[in-house]
Write a structure and sequence with these properties.
- The structure is a single chain.
- The chain is of the alpha/beta class and about 290 residues long.
- The chain folds into three domains: about 100 residues, 3-Layer(aba) Sandwich (Cobalt-precorrin-4 Transmethylase, domain 1), CATH 3.40.1010.20; about 80 residues, Rossmann fold (3-Layer(aba) Sandwich); about 90 residues, 4-hydroxy-3-methylbut-2-enyl diphosphate reductase, catalytic domain (Cobalt-precorrin-4 Transmethylase, domain 1, 3-Layer(aba) Sandwich).
- It is about 45% helix and about 20% strand.
- The chain is built from eleven helices and twelve strands.
- It has a four-stranded parallel β-sheet with strand order 1-12-10-11, sandwiched between helices. A four-stranded parallel β-sheet has the order 3-2-4-5.
- Bound molecules: iron/sulfur cluster.
- The site of iron/sulfur cluster has 14 residues, from helix 1, helix 4 and helix 8.
């Protein structure tokens, strides 16, 4: 058996630059003595990180009005917010730190540009997701969200439409959906706003998962991008486990597969992934040593 005991960890696994940057900003604020810190919605869909932030008295609120201490700092998270909500936040009188990911900002800019030219917007994404709700706010009231090709079939004809994607969308779903909308529109602009880190993660996963006997996807059960990654892996590998920590694994699950591929969503911190990989390797090493005796 090789030194890694048949266990490969995705190079692209772990916090994406947008979420990492937002967490670093908040931790810097906390370290500089700014208190209290309120994030507008949970900073990240990962229980291990939100527990750590709660210990530092960094709490999540839905609106500026919910912040009990107005001398505190309000942080806009990586997912971004609608322009209307941004205006409300700016008028709150509190100090505001904007941690919107630049790649989400880019998607807002693309939507605003075409909306100003009279284009309707179709966003291919999860209708209830915070980022998508924010993007919808930039469509100047002419936006609709579809989850994929099936819902796109039901859309009406458009004179001018701009098709954009949630930044973590599966690329094949986006492209297929855009083709359907194109066929029923006079003018169709296809704006692929899937972010580069997501594209990298998807292509590495597709390459590696198909050669694995077991894929372990690490990340929050409520994280949309982690769940989407697990769905993608299920199309490629014979067995896929979506877990939050190694505590959910049994030795039996990780001993039989020859090749194990470990990947993770954009909201999973590297230390959580490393703990899972270390546990899986150690379990396989122990078993190997025992059977050698
Ligand atoms: S998934 Fe992409 S767009 Fe979204 S926060 Fe991360 S880097 Fe930014």
């Amino acid at each position: 058996m090789d030194k890694d005991f048949g266990v490969t960890v995705a190079k692209s696994a772990g916090l994406c630059p947008g979420v990492k940057g937002a967490i670093e900003k908040v931790l810097e604020l906390e370290a500089s003595g700014k208190k209290p810190i309120y994030t507008l919605g949970p900073l990240i869909h990962n229980k291990q990180v939100t527990d750590m932030l709660a210990l530092k008295h960094i709490t999540s609120v839905d609106t500026p009005a919910q912040a009990t201490d107005k001398s505190g700092v309000l942080v806009i998270r990586a997912h971004g917010i609608t322009p209307a909500f941004r205006a409300e936040v700016m008028q709150s009188g509190m100090e505001v730190v904007d941690a919107t990911c630049p790649l989400v900002k880019h998607a807002h800019d693309v939507i605003s540009k075409y909306a100003s030219e009279g284009y309707a917007t179709v966003i291919v994404g999860d209708s209830g997701h915070a980022e998508v709700l924010g993007l919808l706010g930039s469509t100047q009231g002419k936006g609709v969200v579809v989850s994929g090709p099936e819902e796109a079939q039901k859309l009406p004809h458009f004179d001018k439409v701009n098709v954009v994607s949630q930044t973590t969308q599966k690329e094949s779903v986006f492209l297929e959906t855009a083709e359907i909308i194109k066929a029923k529109s006079a003018v169709c602009q296809v704006s692929n706003t899937i972010c580069h880190p997501t594209k990298l993660r998807q292509s590495e996963t597709m390459e590696r998962a198909k050669n694995a006997d077991l894929v372990i996807v690490v990340g929050g059960k409520h994280s949309a991008n982690t769940t989407r990654l697990a769905v993608l892996c299920r199309e490629l590998a014979p067995q896929v486990l979506h877990i939050e920590t190694e505590a959910e694994l049994t030795a039996q699950q990780v001993l039989a597969p020859k090749q194990i591929f470990i990947t993770a969503g954009a909201s999973t911190p590297n230390w959580v992934i490393n703990q899972v990989a270390a546990w899986v390797r150690q379990t396989r090493r122990d078993h190997h040593n025992l059977s050698e005796k």
